[in-house]
Amino acid sequence: MIRIHPIQTGTVVVHERQRDGIGRGPARLVRTLADRRWTEPLPILAWAIEHPEGLIVVDAGETARAAEPGYFPAWNPYFRFALRLNVEPADEIGPGLERLGLKPRDVRRVVLTHLHTDHAGGLAHLRHGEHVVTRTELAFASGAKGRARGYVNQHWPSWFHPAGVEFDGPAFGPFERSLPLTEAGDVVLLPTPGHTPGHASVAVRTEGRVVLLAGDTSYSQQLMVDDAVDGVTQDPATLRRTLGLIRALAASEPTVYLPSHDPDSAARLAALEPV
Questions:
Q1: Which end of the chain is more exposed for a tag (fewer CB within 10 A), N or C?
Q2: Class level of CATH domain 3-271
């Protein structure tokens, strides 16, 4: 039996234009930064998958250290003007697993949809097990170029050196490639680029449904349905192709769509409510 648990690691408030952006190229990000409207507090969700083959954690959530002066680089306007985080130590992924009766040392795999701070900030709790991130994402997020792109890789744990994975598995619905994460083939990694070049999502087949742990492919289910592209991507066309594949998957079989910042994701999971 497979059980999937949401773990909320605090909340984030962003500009409305981050959820649904306009423009092309650098102007898209400028419009997002200049927006004076703020969202309501949005959840920062990670996920625990209890599987007969072992415990899988999807994303590490954020760390309470993000509130410390100097944690984010002062030169980066996004962290200064477009992000408001509320994360307490008890909200972090380690305590969240413990509240579910799960232990971080028992995690078999840690799957990172991408390496933005609100998905990788809690890595310090997740040393054990295999760390899965796409090779494209790892290359894009690492080093000085990664920091210039907004990744806070200076805070990654010293032991975090994943090899990076490629998609060399069979098709999954409309997705031409996948990467099985279990021998049973019921948990797979799917390429969902756009929000970042190496973004990936985790699909779980359970109880006659596909549960899609979708990271930041969109900020809500409705935005995915509406083909709305976020305001921080530098590749709207690729993200639109990804959203089209997700809609095609949902049309082909019942799919429970769970992006990381949708306030309704946990309720849809509890009800196994498809798109």
A1: N
A2: alpha beta
